[in-house]
């Protein structure tokens, strides 16, 4: 037992606030985001804001619960305004929804983790309002979250966000790629830009050019383009059982993600030039980096890949505006599971 | 449209790795943690490691899904060894399990978010192995996670972790505190130390004394004492329906957390001296900070509070080794909902 009492030093904090943690600010943040969060409540939501755990009615034992955890990488470093912070909130929810959508699941509920070097209540509330809007638009309840203020971990002015989603799909509609066959068509759905991957590289390459004009805004604004959510356009395709598999193109690009939906022994033969690339990728290609490295780092214009029977290709393309055939499933020969990039 | 091609500058990164993101290291990390994660698979787990979403069989529509998101604050700043990193992994899981336990829920599955300034595969694997061990010990499947390497956000050498848990309870056993009545007994269950709250203050106060001996180790080691998990000891109490409410004492301490289980109009009268305090709190009390501030920042030796009928008090105390009666539920008079601290 050591219970010696130390003399109080002048430079030691006298309160939690002096140690960098402002509870009053945290409480103000919670008050600001309460209304937006309430707007996402679903019929199945049980229990009150502020409880230790958030409760949602279970969908039934013939269903599966599909979950995913995601961040948005260093895209957060480009944010300057509260409106842009709200965009990051939407990015995070869309990323999570797309991930569980690849299993055929629709969102049930979402939780967030926010960490700041310094908590600015209105900024944190903007982030959460973006999440709440995206959740409400897709029938998902924002049921909880954790907000931390940690100047010792985060660089001055930095913040990070992580999202956790749980969705559900009836067991007989669970999509695991096992129905994918040689000869299946691959359909690419357009991305809106980098979505939430490759920012550590893109920001470094473009550091001096962020305010240059590109399209209708600056390069910085184009880099902040929203991570598209594919739930609404893919819902009819899933409802009709037309998709054999889905791959969400995030970190690792086409070569890192398409194999995640493919059964063993199968590979994807892609015609990457079939898909038009948003202008930002042309700017990035201008730096002359290795082409395969580019396709491993960025989505290069393709946000989601759908595998379907070639006989359903026309129907799938009609259901998905702007989608294009980008290849087909082949037998794997050699180590490469995505052929046609390099 | 802006598709001008920039000249390549010598100091620009030529690859994702040069931009601070090492995909090979990330892949090595995943290989290292695969086995530990597989060991947590439950009967209800569906689908493969590496899929976009993790699937678990739904427990049935007579059940509720209870979820929570948590971090461990700046406790991470005290970690020096891989064994200590594993301890942080256990802390995170225990924190999450305790949160949903307050609703009467048992864990189903857990996902993590890890972010580093520099990813060290063996260190990241140690963190996840701690999580996997804690999950396996409590019947919880570690179904997924996200690992990010973001030197632009995190201070040199820093890392952060967040956890997300989903558990379940049958709807008729859901604990929301609504059965708590005036006269109910409050039982305190001992904490092992600070658990995962108050570290920004404690580390600052004790910065020069971390290697001083305290008990069987150094102050730093005592600060790293594990966040206790109360699932196993509370399970029989919950099974027999003896708890009217549970409060997990985390950020905000007794005054911030006990009211979260209380119905409106009720307050807690606590006898804080009834509970022995681990030595670290005596050291912290030695700095002469405001007593109420101390009780709002730290758990001060009480990790969980159980509300029960006074007629069941003896049975509850017998079921919980080291637990002590620390007060009773009273009618709220004035603004204070926890009386007896200042």
Describe it.
2 copies of one chain form a homodimer. Chain A is globular. In chain A, 29% of the residues lie in helices and 24% in strands. Residues 1-10 of chain A have low confidence and may be disordered. The first copy, chain A, has a 6-stranded mixed β-sheet with strand order 10-12-7-13-11-14. In chain A, helix 1 (23-38) packs parallel to helix 3. Chain A is an alpha+beta fold. Chain A has helices spanning 23-38, 82-101, 121-137, 199-205, 219-223, 231-239, 253-257, 279-285, 291-297, 313-319; strands at 45-46, 54-57, 63-71, 106-116, 141-149, 159-170, 185-190, 213-214, 217-218, 245-248, 266-270, 302-308, 324-331, 338-339. The interface between A and B is large, with 107 and 107 residues. Strand 2 (54-57) of chain A pairs antiparallel with strand 3 of chain B.
Topology:
Two copies of one chain form a homodimer.
Chain A: H1 23-38, E1 45-46, E2 54-57, E3 63-71, H2 82-101, E4 106-116, H3 121-137, E5 141-149, E6 159-170, E7 185-190, H4 199-205, E8 213-214, E9 217-218, H5 219-223, H6 231-239, E10 245-248, H7 253-257, E11 266-270, H8 279-285, H9 291-297, E12 302-308, H10 313-319, E13 324-331, E14 338-339
Parallel strand pairs in A: 4-5, 11-14
Antiparallel strand pairs in A: 1-2, 3-6, 4-6, 7-12, 7-13, 8-9, 10-12, 11-13
Helix pairs in contact in A: 1-3, 2-3
